[in-house]
Design goal:
15 helices, disordered C terminus, globular, alpha+beta, 43% helix, nine-stranded mixed sheet
Length: 382
Amino acid sequence: MSHYNTVLNQMLQLIPRHQFETAVKSYAGDRYVKRFNCWNQLTTLLYAQASGKESLREIEQSLSVNDSRLYHLGLPAIKRSTLADANQTRSYKIFESLFYKMLKRCQDLTPKHKFKFKNPLYSIDATVIDLCLSMFSWAKFMATKGGIKLHYEFNHSGQIPSFLVVTDAKQYETTVVKKFFPIIADSIYCLDRGYNDFVLYRRINEAKAFFVTRARDNLDYTVIGQHTQTLKKNILSDEQIKLANKKYPKPLRLIRYLDKETDEIVTFLTNNFILAPYSITQVYKARWQIEIFFKWIKQNLKIKTFLGTSKNAVLTQIWTAMCYYMLLAYVKYQTKYRNSLFYLHRIIKETLLARLTLIDLLRATPAKLNQFKTNEFQLAFW
């Protein structure tokens, strides 16, 4: 290992460089560039994500202080104005393309979801990032508020995002899903009541896929038969129904379940007539993993404070954050790392410029990690 082969450098070597450069050429990212190219931009933004830097000035100063340990990355001296210009002018689609290349490679490594059935299982939901309207005027949400909405498809195999669409915050979730989201045959999609749309349900059904959702209290339907005669595990009823709404003309399944934890009767609606009724309830319960994912990215990735105010700069930062998330997931599943993604992110953050192998880092005890950090602190003042 080279004396200067830092943890950051090894992380960058896991990125499919050839595919990234192909995307750069497709969107002319390096046209007329002499010094700070797209790879330098990606390196800088991933460094900022991993180390938790929140401003252009902070990134500039940190890179300047650590110049002797970063020169092997090929980074030129970086001014904050240079990074700001790159984020504003180079297409965010370069980094969006890289995310999907990394996703495809990561999907081959992820463990399957916890359920016994083999169907792919996804949750679909959206989360809002608030923005200051005076600074981000293109993201107008309300009269005095700005914001963007991140629409995710979340794969329960590996707990990773498998599709993302970014819109202004006023876009309806169902409109975005119907317009952009792919539906894969034989898959199961979990949706909360905010996605109540019979045209969407029909589209899923026609694609030979399944949906599981919470039924609305005012659902208008007729019972046409019992699906399950023997009820257990707090299942109160399992019925076949026909909706009054003609946008979904085929039979559906309505399951009532008594949640002992909340003492609440919950009603589920699905087009899946194969799984046991209790399995349907647990499939929907697993949907909360996407809420945990939302909380994780908002707390650990830099997607709430931005390095630029243009739409392109914001989207560039969001897609590089997702690339960093996929990089963490790839390391975890490729090495069969047993600890959580959160812990992996923390130890990489603390040892980002340490000169040790990733394998040594992942095997290190807490005491050894403290030693790594102490050694690097001493080297900084050598």
